[in-house]
Design brief:
The structure is a homodimer.
Chain A lengths: L8 E5 L9 H16 L11 E4 L3 H13 L3 E4 L6 H9 L3 E3 L8 H12 L2 E2 L6 H7 L1 H9 L5 E5 L4 H13 L4 E7 L4 H8 L23 H9 L5 E5 L1 H15 L9 H7 L8 E5 L6 H9 L2
Chain lengths: ~300, ~300
């Protein structure tokens, strides 16, 4: 969509996507591909169900994709997650396991539950089907606006950014692809600078709660930096994120979540390469207490 | 736009319009028509400028339309208006007079200033050019979705509703056109029931601050009820408006203003005729304190 903020700016507002974020693009591509590859339910490796670990948008996306193809979905959500997100995931028909799940032990619990049930994992970012699915947002934006010269997306684990980079560079080799992350969660920036995957010592504290992953995935690194499909990683301050969120809600009238505001924050603070710019606004599932505070106490 | 709330529902989200509401449609049509009718600035009745009385969305719309054609704009805004809206109007190049302007004396002051300056009035609703301009929102929605059977819009002075009714009935005589207003501001409902313009004794108290006008206009009455282009007026409670606003912000991710939530409130509370429904979400310039309260204390 266009805005009156800047006539050269285009937004792909993924908050208007089903479940309120871009995540169903990857989840649907992964779940449908799983089913396609094994043919009928009678096939010996047809998945018995799918499993995901997420406290956020990926959980709802996998639940919806699984329900759509008629597979059971099991989602592991840390004990301290937002109850609204847990309820939304259950409302989409998924089984949720929360008891005893922590940020630290969730990978271990995941492997145990996968072994018990024989369910297939839908990884939130380090998966080719997920990466290709996430790339369709940028692909659609470029179909609508083929002259875009700069594309910016948030970067957490790197699913959206690596998918966008593949889509953008196959549209035109000269498009600049930029990932935006919070200063406090600069693992992608460090990985770009050092040329190897860098891991943060702990989950970072940031308004942008969708990018608290401590490291990008191996496949994402491969696309983004090993194959140089991403041109730059830009970091923004918490103040810049808050300010972009306010501009989004009050000027653009898009109820975006802080993570979705990352590319807008980079644009507004002049940190992006100049040119016709397309921003992927990744989602709108904001914590309302946080947003209410940011809107009324700037 | 479509939503995942209801597959048969379509929204015309006018919060994404320049200045954040549908009002520029009527203001541009009125200002451009004024200029067109008189030809060049040398014509004796070419307007010296335009004038409007508004504390809200109409002020910014007239300011933008006048600036676009190079005419001065003078806006009378009551003394107690929201300073943010005054600043936004000034930022669009309009002169604002606030000193001594009250809700009660503003019509009188308007006539005095018009006589002094020789400026032409752009009425917010009781004006054919404004009515025809406002109708383009429904016209565009019907171009996108020709099968719509029910159209609902907010009704204050009746500019949007009467324009929408003309557009909708010329598209198809069988479309139902419904105006939605707050229970506490039911002058259009009373005018519909009695068959003559009814005036509220004072500006009503409602969350929907865009429809606090005490009576619909004469031309609006003529279109809506004398010529029966509007089928029904529906009223909604303050609780229904608040609830629709929350659904808009949290489920649809559209940062709409309470007035813009009126048709959604009528839809969600089951008060609209059944069928493929199109709602005109009239704007997004919400008072942030109000919205923050509604979002966090449901």
């Amino acid at each position: 969509m266009a805005t009156d903020l800047d006539t050269h700016l285009r937004l792909k507002a993924e908050c208007f996507q089903v479940t309120g974020s871009f995540k169903p693009r990857g989840a649907f591509n992964a779940v449908l591909s799983l089913v396609d590859r094994t043919g009928s339910p009678a096939h010996p490796s047809h998945p018995a169900g799918v499993i995901a670990v997420s406290s956020g948008n990926h959980a709802q996306a996998v639940a919806l994709a699984a329900r759509t193809v008629g597979l059971p979905a099991l989602i592991l959500i840390p004990d301290d997650a937002n109850p609204a997100k847990v309820a939304a995931t259950r409302a989409l028909g998924a089984e949720v396991i929360q008891k005893g799940i922590t940020f630290a032990n969730r990978e271990q619990r995941l492997r145990e539950v996968m072994a018990e049930r024989g369910f297939s994992l839908v990884h939130p970012f380090d998966d080719w089907d997920v990466i290709h699915g996430q790339g369709t947002a940028a692909m659609e934006m470029l179909e609508d606006e083929p002259a875009i010269e700069v594309i910016a997306t948030p970067v957490g684990g790197g699913g959206l950014l690596s998918g966008s980079a593949i889509a953008a560079k196959s549209h035109s080799g000269s498009i600049k692809v930029i990932g935006v992350e919070p200063e406090t969660a600069d693992d992608a920036y460090q990985s770009w600078k050092t040329g190897s995957v860098q891991t943060l010592p702990m989950a970072p504290v940031t308004l942008a709660d969708g990018v608290r992953t401590t490291a990008i995935g191996q496949r994402n690194f491969e696309v983004m930096f090993a194959n140089r499909l991403v041109d730059e990683i830009v970091t923004v301050t918490e103040e810049e994120i808050a300010s972009a969120l306010r501009v989004g809600w009050t000027r653009l009238h898009i109820a975006l979540e802080p993570t979705g505001a990352l590319p807008l924050a980079a644009h507004l603070s002049g940190k992006l390469t100049k040119g016709r710019t397309g921003l992927v606004i990744s989602g709108g599932n904001a914590n309302l207490e946080t947003v209410a505070k940011l809107l009324t106490h700037p």
